[in-house]
## 1
Amino acid sequence: MLATYRPILSLLRGTAFLLAASGLHGLLLPLRGQEEGFSTTALGLMGTAWAGGFVAGCYFAPRVVRRAGHVRAFGTFAASAAIIALLTGLIVDEYVWILLRAFTGFAMAGAFMVIESWLNERATNENRGTVFGLYMMVTYASIMAGQMMVAGGDVTSASLFMVTGILFCLSLIPTAVSSAAHPKPLQDVSLDIKGLYANSPVASVACFLIGVANGDWGTLGAVYGARVGISTPEIALMMSLVVIAGAALQIPIGKISDRTDRRYVLIGASLASAVAALLIFLVAPRSGPFVIAMTACYGAFAYTLYSLAVAHANDHAKPEDFVKVSGGLLLLYGFGTMVGPMLGAGLMDVMRPEALFLATAAAHFALAGYTALRIKRRAPVPIEDREAFKTQPADRSATPESLRLDPRQKAEPETQDVP
């Protein structure tokens, strides 16, 4: 049994280092930028640049992999991310960081796609669910571990940037020494907005708006925490618990959506997210435990929405179109994450730190309103014709390639290890 999963566990170790580095770097930059007095607009642009680079990486990384091969391409992506992390520690300038974040997003998309394709190649119809579950567990645990490293360091020194570079380099080792045969070439990514909207207008609009809200929070949440005066360890815990709370609530909310029209559940979760955001804006908590508790309540609902939207889209899609539909929705989500940070930064500049949540609330209210309008125009898919709800990987690591790992996909023909 263990021998069956040994190649997968090796690749998951590389994934863990990669995600820990990404989580650490993604939280370190806004905190250090806040300490250096960077403008809110510049901090928001870092999130927009990362998202833009990530989406571009999803499009162009397959070409790099086909030319260089999986091992060399992954080495290039991970080494590039390490170099960029070290450069951000050496050159503390907001304009340089914005540019470097775009390159980081591109490198991370490429690295994730290589590992995910490798995992998909090693998965079979019998163990695909286990592999997908392990990947999800490693994803959430590693991101949280990386973010919590900030709590044990000094954001004003270069040490955490060095740790980030070390973690990126460590992610190279399991892949470099793996004896697993190279996976098949990565599939090209395409976006058919017209086709996605025809399949599910609600899911298409929802994924963009969810991207706006999550991109807003993911980029500027740490800045909000710093400006309301909570400590760095509390900020790290806050950012982690928001995502973990959403991951924990996905399963119960998903089960409810399996028993009714998913659009009603999508509306309910959207309104709950919007109300939680408005409460934070109105109450304006300042103590660490209170801030953490209120933002965790917000995240518990906000981070269930993407999985609900994808499940609704797949209710209307043919089984063979799952990857195409889900991959397209993921790209729409990516475009939303480019918009969100700029909207939140603008509101925080003219108001107070809690104005970040006005931006997320606006996106969630818009989502609930549009979904309510669509309920009258299209009948739900009968429950017996739907597949059960499935959770989705964390938004900071999901690529179109990760969707092929989903247990609903048929495994590719197995390859043998290189002797």
## 2
Amino acid sequence: MREYLLVLFCTAAVTYLLTGPVRKFAIAAGAMPPVRARDVHREPTPRLGGIAMFGGLCAGILVASQLDNLSKVFSQGTDIRALLSGAGIMWLLGVLDDKWGVDALVKLGGQMIAAGVMVWQGVTVITLPVPGVGAVAVSPTQGMVISVTMVVVMVNAVNFIDGLDGLAGGMVCIAAMAFFLYSYRLWYGYTITDAAPAVLFSVLLIGMCLGFLAHNLHPARIFMGDSGSMMLGLMLAVAAISITGRVDPDLITSETGSQTATVHALVPIYIPLLLPLTVIALPLADLLLAVVRRTWAGQSPFAADKRHLHHRLLQVGHSHSRAVLIMYFWAALIAFGTVAFSVTNTGRTVVLTLAGLCLVGLVVLLTPRFRPRAPRAVQAFVPPRYRRRKPARAVARVAEGDAPVAPATSATSEPMAELSAKDKELLGNLGNKGGSSAVGGRGHGSGRGR
């Protein structure tokens, strides 16, 4: 575990340190497109954050190759080499798209090429565990189709949710944590060495996301762009493919002593690719809904719109930060709930706990305008939106240096009591230019400002 923590720390640190220079490079290179109608941010923000994430990935792999236990992953298979090849192609495609824009079909073709390169190097589904039957071998063609399809689905699912500050990075980080717990248990709990690459891939993903989220949380200073989101989706897919079809149920049966216990332990993988799909259940649902919605309307499935799940949360009244936290909550609930169900022997406890958490999530989801106010003792340590607001007249007195505010003498002078002296002076100058003496006074102009 210490070696994994070291790899995670190095990956996160390199990603964090590279993001600042990459941001300056993106601004200088002009990779800062104007705000579009479907965007949520209000001012142009540089992209190309995937460059820093790719640097963190390379640093983490370099550190892992020098450690005693993790270096065995490099010598026992070609998964690491395949990951770097596919991630490099996907990253380059994303950089081109962030800077100049790439057609949707060309982008899809590039995704399939990256997946094909990894399949050619050995990252492919070989067998599928089927309940009651066992491991069923698939032909090379079938394995290639399943692997390429999974990569394309994962990549576009992550790319579709990259619409709010910190949303994609946080949800991929949650998914990677859940996948790490599951694959780590298979490796060390059941001594299945084929699960080792998935453990390392999950740690690298967590480090990349944590290092980048420090710059990407609302308000974001830089976006990961397609160069980051597509690479994260590919890494999730590689982690899933590297473990799916390589876990022999007979090995776990020898540890558990019964086939019933084995079936329970293998719940997330007995149905092919179930666990990888549950850890990105929300992005996948958003992807499927978007494809159905656009196809039904006679549009291209790749046509952009402003009707994703995170957009709908904003439309019902949730703030930017709350919408992101809600998505985090549901992603964690589904991913860790699936892992917990595969670990514990008391499924009833897990179901009741998940039901209670679902109820809490629904209450928060249905109360978008509820904003709890923190106690006065801790207001200095919470975001401004959770602090108690001072009365408007008190704010005006503080702005004027605690000068007494003259009582309003008319309905037109009432708004002036709410303004600072600097604002009054500015409004007075504007009024003089328009022909009146002051705002709120008796003007001598034509009165068009009323």
## 3
Amino acid sequence: MIDARPVGYVIGLLVAALGVTMFAPLLADLVAGNDHWPVFLESAILTILVGGLVALACQNGVSEGLSIRQTFLLTTLVWLALPLFGSLPFILGGSSLSFTDAFFEAMSGLTTTGSTVIVGIETLPEGLKLWRSIMQWLGGIGIIVVAMVFLPELRVGGMQIFRSEAFDTMGKILPRAAEISSKISVIYVAITLACALCYTATGMSSFDAITHAMTTVATGGFANYDTSFAAFGSGPQYVASVFMLLSALPFVRYVQLISGGGASPLFLDSQIRTFFVVIFALVTVMTLWVWQFFDGFSERGFREAFFNVTSIMTGTGYASANYMLWGPFAVTMFFFIGLIGGCAGSTACSVKVFRYQLLFASIKAQIRRIHSPHGVFTPRYQGRRVGDDVLNSVMAFFVAFMVSIGVVGVALALTGLDFITAISGAATALANVGPGLGNEIGPAGNFAGLNDTAKWILAMAMLVGRLEIMAVFTILSWNFWRG
């Protein structure tokens, strides 16, 4: 049996901390003169009370550290508990969402997916708008810590190679994960503030600048308007594009930068170089394609291509135009762009660049073995030999990811959704991108019209995708519970 008390203790503390953050939207409603603030007071008191009681009840079982099984359990259950309490302001508030819709919105927020079931976002009280942004901002920093500390330890999806990149190669600069996490938090706040200032400088209101800065740096995609970034001009769109790119880079490289390691790690990291090469190629191709829809060679065509490609590839999910109207080629491109993702150790989601690098390195080595059967060819990453355990983990991830898209797609189709909606909905949920394809869940639509069963399937898919799939699958296995 697993001693769940240490897990309950940590979850209780995190739930209570989530309740504390509810006072920020409460103040936003008070400042705006809304009578919606009691909703956040009730939600905060209930959340802090339950979280505190759970932590106190489990305090006696706290030990020096968590076992591997307890860590697996913690990383999964915490992403179920937080959306559950994060949904309270939607249930009790002016949005009048059902429990299903409220949980979907909270799960989408905390996993930084960005899919929404709310119609008329601009009519929401300021508190709820801010709460949507806070959830994504917390989810963004949360997934960095998970990717830095927990997932490498659990050896899922090849993340153990990133533990090597984050800790082993940093020498004596930052030997402890706790110190790295604290520095990442400072950098995260600094980038968010810089983004908000840039938004303000380009004409956004202070409130919009703060909320959109949170969802930009978290690569979450929640906006304060149904039309997303089409509500803003060219300035905010360029600012968003730049900060989405910055947020999709490994935050540990920023830590090295401010710790005296210089800028060389940013330029020497093959993952970062590959990420920018892919972005450049995709933006170039998309720009050439969309110019036919924007009066020839125009700045707008480049801007729309740059913004939307960056948004989808980083998993942010903002939209400045309905790219469903750009023809079959663009629609197909956007589907596959969403399956690439950013860098490991960033707020970006989806498969991530380093896994494709390892996949292609493995394919290259295998081709060379076939060509020269007596040769010894070993896949390498950053000039270092990649072990079989890492390669096996990456291959298992790819298989699990593709199979999951198929299973979730079939499950959604069984609820009555058409093929495009079902398969793109499955992909966007597992990759935590946000918008799907089609008229209903595409960039010009939302998920409000889906049935409740489909929403629960998608909410669970968001959780599975955010935790790199294998972490969730492991606790569903019989052997895990047998010990």
